[in-house]
Amino acid sequence: xxxxxxxxxxxxxxxxxxxxxxxxxxxxxxxxxxxxxxxxxxxxxxxxxxxxxxxxxxxxxxxxxxxxxxxxxxxxxxxxxxxxxxxxxxxxxxxxxxxxxxxxxxxxxxxxxxxxxxxxxxxxxxxxxxxxxxxxxxxxxxxxxxxxxxxxxxxxxxxxxxxxxxxxxxxxxxxxxxxxxxxxxxxxxxxxxxxxxxxxxxxxxxxxxxxxxxxxxxxxxxxxxxxxxxxxxxxxxxxxxxxxxxxxxxxxxxxxxxxxxxxxxxxxxxxxxxxxxxxxxxxxxxxxxxxxxxxxxxxxxxxxxxxxxxxxxxxxxxxxxxxxxxxxxxxxxxxxxxxxxxx
Amino acid sequence: xxxxxxxxxxxxxxxxxxxxxxxxxxxxxxxxxxxxxxxxxxxxxxxxxxxxxxxxxxxxxxxxxxxxxxxxxxxxxxxxxxxxxxxxxxxxxxxxxxxxxxxxxxxxxxxxxxxxxxxxxxxxxxxxxxxxxxxxxxxxxxxxxxxxxxxxxxxxxxxxxxxxxxxxxxxxxxxxxxxxxxxxxxxxxxxxxxxxxxxxxxxxxxxxxxxxxxxxxxxxxxxxxxxxxxxxxxxxxxxxxxxxxxxxxxxxxxxxxxxxxxxxxxxxxxxxxxxxxxxxxxxxxxxxxxxxxxxxxxxxxxxxxxxxxxxxxxxxxxxxxxxxxxxxxxxxxxxxxxxxxxx
DNA sequence: CACTTCACGCGAACCGGTTCGATAACTGGT
DNA sequence: ACCAGTTATCGAACCGGTTCGCGTGAAGTG
Lengths: 343, 343
Known about the structure:
homodimer; about 350 residues; alpha/beta; 6-stranded mixed sheet; 14 helices; DNA-binding
């Protein structure tokens, strides 16, 4: 069931079979048919490893995703799915690689052993040695998120600064004056995660601009942490009337905390943030939020990566996305605001 | 940066380098050190494709997961994560393969082209041609879920029959008499998805045993469908006082539907089902449910698969898991039940 | 001192493809 | 009838590893 066997049965040489399949040289219609018949009979498919060895291409891209220790968020899931789909459209497979504790090891596997033609990096940090490393090697890669110095690199990212600011403005417009910010876990912030930093930045600046009183919190990636965080918020400043969150996994816990504190959303308290649309619609009331376009990001990332693999000298490209805030049901007028149905 | 280059610089033959690395033949301590030094200097790593070609092993397992058209559930996410992690522990990579519309094509990629040494199949159907196909080929694979005739195949599954029955008994014990069942989408049931069928079965039989009045529903994998499904339930029988669901993605919608119908959980209405623990804790009130042990299943699946790859003649093995119901806050006494705090 | 034994290292063949250069069989022009 | 130019095919080399069989020199033995 290898190319030699096909050649033998079709009465031609191995190279002729190869050319008949690839079409890189002319093969007479006669022999092509003869070869095709044998192939169909035997159900032959060329061996991927041999092909990869011969032409230096594995037709596989690596998806370097955060370690399982972190809880995965719905957004990441959607993203992975769309990457796989987009890759299939380009005839690429996707190899998952955990960038765990021992991120060097899996990196060596992917790149050193040439398992993949390129890589997509998730959960970028502002100073990311992985990005620097790949850039130094000239290895085709696309980052999901941008580092502090993204010039000259390929990436697709969300404008977290602008999104967090948009949330602040939305709340300020509604009359909220005391607003909390619920960030990703402290360890991620310390590690320099891009979304956590830029989001915090955008929030802080916009809040200052609007003269809001704010407090910022880090919160674990799970419901229990969310609930606990909300208790802290109300304890620190009971007059807080709204929050902005980047932490999708904590959302359910935040809502529960509000319910237990007897604050009705959106009458007594407004919630907004940056969350995958599908998950914003899962909670009640549905979350007014900047919907993370995970599918679009996955598609873009693959398109860029494939482009880069095909033309190694192409100039760097990127996509910076700024999805609008989808108005749903979790935000309302702030305290002391004259509202249409007030007496 | 290939093995020949290493050999040249170390002043030995290629085979010696190979043996020094694999340890399959003795190499003197002297030359081993010499070789190692060169390798360290150059950062050499053996090419995975070449190695795979030579020894017929790719050290990669395929994860055949449902098409993106379906919405992914949290359980699937946890599962994928744990598979990747467990595979890494066995020194295997994980290749994702969408078993989309054109499932044949990706199957051919994985198996025909020998990209993987074995495969894990998700979302099994009672009559699953993929399983039959792999069994016929003798290709190492482990199914997540069991077909109608699982004898002689390798699988790890959840006892959906028992779990759904346990939910019914739990509700019946609490005094509920009119109970609804919210299944996965109709198209999946028609397609013969194992969990949908066995769950429905277990529910129906247990309900008959306990003499309950039941209605069963199919529901899309998203919040909007969940809400709509709940409206249908209350419309069809307003006296319904509890539901059992297998549909994790619809859970948020079901809760919303209840809230909008003015039914308080668990006072007026009880909700339970089979859901990944992490997601059961996200909703408010937290869901009393049989927690899907996704991580454990991922680990088991990988362990079985690796075992099967290593010893092709080993007798079939499987794991059938029946996690207990975790009592949380979404179920309470049924209507007409004397309760401690009743007047 | 000749004779086995053993540790060590080498060369060649092989895994299954791709690709280059050469050759042979036709074609058409003069 | 001869030469240039196609067109279709073949053989050999190569990609970068692994593995088998053999040769060599040193150590062990009677």
